[in-house]
Design a protein that fits this description.
Elements (H helix, E strand, L loop, with lengths): L1 H16 L19 E2 L20 E6 L5 E4 H5 L4 E8 L4 E12 H8 L7 E6 L4 E5 H4 L5 E6 L2 E2 L9 E3 L12 E7 L26
Parallel strand pairs: 1-5, 2-11
Antiparallel strand pairs: 2-3, 4-5, 5-8, 6-7, 6-11, 8-9, 8-10
The structure holds ligand MTE and molybdenum atom (MO).
The site of molybdenum atom has 6 residues, from loops.
Length: about 210
């Protein structure tokens, strides 16, 4: 895990040097996962609750199997190094959105801050709307996984999961917690909201891992 973390951190650094928004070739035929349709809009999916969290009341807890559990308030979170990344977004309900420009804090930065213990192997995300989702730690240690506070240069709106939401582009979008409140490092896997209700646990859009 350590080597993977260092490699991801290095790739993040290289990507940040190449400043500016560079949409990739939209025409690339291999870019849309099987069974997906491209949308130009940005649909909203939630549990019917869009919690309103003022910045003064917002915090992100990073804990579990870590050497240094932290609870970051809005100021402390935004004082962490910021990254920007453009990625594609794939929802299990068959829409995909290309070139989403997110900025915020890289997952690797939170990993480095909390210092997971050697037995940490899974991540369980919790949200202000009662949502949860789970991801193997190795899937989070990639140079496109971040806790985003901005979309296209503007604060993430409440409907899209502001103040902060998780983005894991290589998995179906339900694996990215909107309104994120907690990031918990666990030794074993723990199923999240949709994973308990018939959605795939692995959620790879390229393998069409939609429902379990
Ligand atoms: N907290 C929370 N996060 C969530 C959800 C949710 O209901 N609550 N829905 C998930 C699903 S199913 C998808 S497709 C995306 C939708 O993000 P969007 O509303 O910005 O399109 O958020 C994911 N994260
Ligand atoms: Mo979804």
């Amino acid at each position: 895990m350590k080597d993977q973390f260092i490699a991801a951190k290095q790739r993040w650094a290289e990507k940040q040097k190449a400043a500016g928004f560079k949409p990739r070739d939209v025409a690339a035929p291999d870019r849309l996962p099987p069974g997906q349709r491209l949308t130009k809009g940005f649909p909203v999916l939630d549990l019917g609750i869009q919690p309103e969290i003022p910045h003064a009341e917002w915090s992100l807890t990073v804990d579990g199997e870590v050497e240094n559990p932290v609870k970051l308030d809005w100021t402390a979170f935004n004082a962490l190094p910021q990254v920007e990344d453009t990625s594609d977004f794939h929802c299990v309900t068959t829409w995909s959105k290309f070139d989403c420009r997110w900025s915020g804090v890289a997952f690797t930065t939170l990993y480095e801050l909390a210092r997971p213990k050697p037995d940490a192997a899974f991540v369980y995300f919790t949200s202000y709307d009662g949502y949860s989702t789970n991801v193997p730690l190795e899937k989070c240690l990639d140079d496109d996984v971040l806790v985003a506070t901005r979309f296209d240069g503007e604060p993430v709106t409440r409907e899209h999961g502001g103040p902060a939401r998780v983005i894991i582009p290589k998995l179906y979008a339900w694996k990215g917690a909107k309104f994120v409140q907690g990031i918990h490092f666990l030794p074993g896997d723990k199923l999240g909201f949709w994973e308990l209700r018939g959605y795939s646990n692995s959620a790879d859009p390229w393998k069409e891992e939609r429902y379990a």
